[in-house]
Amino acid sequence: MPSLKNVISLILASSVPFCMQSVQAQTFPERTVTILVPFVPGGAFDVVARLAAERLSKETGQQFIVENKPGAGGTLGGRIVSQSKPDGYTLLLSGVGPISISPAVYKNLGYDPATALAPVIQLTTSPFVLVTSQEFKGKSLDDFTAFLKASPGKYNYASTGNGTLVHLAGEYFKNKTHTDFEHIPYSGGSQATLALMSGDATFSITNIPNVLSQIKAGKLIGVATTGKTRSSALPDLPTMAEAGLKDFELSGWIGIFAPAGTPEPVIESLNAAFSKVMENPEMKKRLEEQGDDVTTGSVAQFKQYVADSDAKWKQIATDANVSID
Fold first, then answer.
1. Is the pLDDT of residue 20 over 70?
2. 5 part of a folded domain
3. Which of 199, 215, 222, 266 falls between 20 and 30 A from 236, CA-CA?
4. Residues 202 and 132: beta-carbon distance below 8 Å
């Protein structure tokens, strides 16, 4: 039987790591924190990162800096962070595309975000918008589905590339409405928007910032948005459910991730810090202008949200038979 002295020694030894983590969390951060953004500067992800980093630097007294690491459809940044030291000083700001969709469509992604990254906090949600060219003369979603069904296979759907969120959103719409149209992949949001403007493509279900100014100027037609509630950027447009297409809910999201193995107290500390700065009224207003609604919560809530997102997009990709080597 172990002696009392040995039992006490074991208890003390097992409590040391937890105590060290607690102290680490209380003093975190003690130096510069880097937020990697897996896309080029100037986009929606970059804007969220830089707005948050500026306020976090003021709030914590330590520098939060943003580094852009584009490549491999947004997955390069995730791989870099997953291989970083799990101490909370290298973070990833990413979203539904690289985290949920890429693993669903790419056979050889190179890493598994679900096991290599630790969710910290959700920052935003952003519905998409079904937008059409001027070729469509109707007003409602019912009008538009009737328009497509009248000429199966005639009209083109513009996406931002094969295997992207916009591509899968179109396939999901096709499945839900029993319509038939041609998918045309473009190299990005601006190219897809130009195709809609020129009439080379008939419609798209895309990120609101890609087409917001054109809808407001009357150059493109917004039909409906895809969130649970109306978009703050396009409040006059109905949701898909309001327009009559039930169970059609798709939203993009942006969140913060740390390398797997980062101490839970540090993750909780980061969650609290990001939550505080994201609730800033000026921050909310700025993000709403680009179609992003601030959506924060606990670490546990974000873990479940990401798991649900992964499952949903995997099912959509499977149903659409979208797979890329």
1. no
2. no
3. 199
4. yes
